[in-house]
Amino acid sequence: MKEAGVWMKRLWLGWSHVLFPPSCAICGTWVPEGVDVCEGCVAEMERVRLSELDDNVLVRLFMQAAPVVRAASLLRYSPETRVAGLLAEIKYRHRPELARRLGRWMARELEGRGMFRGIDALVPLPLTPERQKERGYNQSECLARGVSDVVGLPVRTDVARRLFFHTSQTMLSGEERRANVEGAFAPTVSYGELCARGEGLRHPLLIDDVVTTGASLMALARAVEAPSLSFLTLAMAGAYHARYPSDEEVRRETGDEVTCVDVDGWQ
To answer: Domain containing 219 — which CATH number?
Structure first.
């Protein structure tokens, strides 16, 4: 019976590639097996060009509420772009495996620039238990696990919990976003006991899918109560875009190639 089940599974997997050939997660174009996003969509996704990880527009944003050391984001988000489609895939269309591969890509892009130096744990932005059950996974945790696959740091989901979820941040103003998440996170009982003994995290990296005003991550930072904090998101949106320099200026300052993203780096 077990062998018959294995045979049926293999048969279905074989036919599924014929009936449902692999396609780009964003535009639906055919892609080779194992590839999530086509080269065309990858080329159209604009990179965030932060030449310094310890002094940039995100660092200055998070300075308002946390002892921030470094902050980075990989992609520039705005509505009706390829990046918006990518975020929708990992957040609303049950693509946890895609989120994990994107986490690996983030880690490979930033590892050589010192992003993970001194970090003792990766802490994804938590969902409420009800929200996580409804979605089936936490996309921020999937991103964090992808980062962990590359850099080997532990993913800590036992540090903080989300107490409530009032409403989505998507359509709210900056002030409304801050009010919406005020007090939304708290340390777990076990982590609170560690902190009371002086054994809490010293320098965690807080991870989320997208930063707009930073309200959610700053609320999480207050719950974690670490002496040093760093922040990493897949995308950056909102009013905190720095002026984007020319490709030549970016190459001169950072040595980065900015015209294309290596699709193989996603796998």
So the answer is: 3.40.50
Q: Are residues 95 and 213 in the same domain?
A: yes
Pairwise CA distance, residues 265 & 23, whole Å: 18
* Mean of pLDDT values over 38-53: 81
Residue 235 Ramachandran class (φ > 0 left, ψ -120 to 50 alpha, else beta): beta
Give per-residue pLDDT as tens, 110-128.
999 999 999 999 999 999 8
Same domain, 74 and 160: yes
- The pTM of this model reads 0.77
Neighbours of 41 (CB within 10 A): 22
In DSSP notation, 210-259 reads: EESSSHHHHHHHHHH--SSEEEEEEEE-GGGPPPPPPHHHHHHHH----S
pLDDT band at 263 (very low <50, low <70, confident <90, very high): very low
Q: Token pair of 134, please?
A: 């409804």
By three-state DSSP, how is residue 198 classified? coil
CA-closest candidate to residue 229, choices 119, 83, 102, 145 = 119
Instruction: Give the domain range for residue 104.
Output: 47-242
Angle between helices 215-224 and 174-181 (to 10 degrees): 30
Identify the three-state secondary structure at position 47.
strand
Number of compact structural domains in the chain: 2
CA distance linking residue 72 with residue 115, whole number of Å: 8
- Same domain as 130, residue 73: yes
Asked whether residue 21 falls in the same domain as residue 117, the answer is: no
DSSP 4-42: HHHHHHHHHHHHHHHHS--B-TTT--B--TT--S-HHHH
Tokens of 17: 């590639």
Question: Terminal CA-to-CA distance of the chain, rounded, Å?
Answer: 35
Strands 68-76 and 229-236: parallel
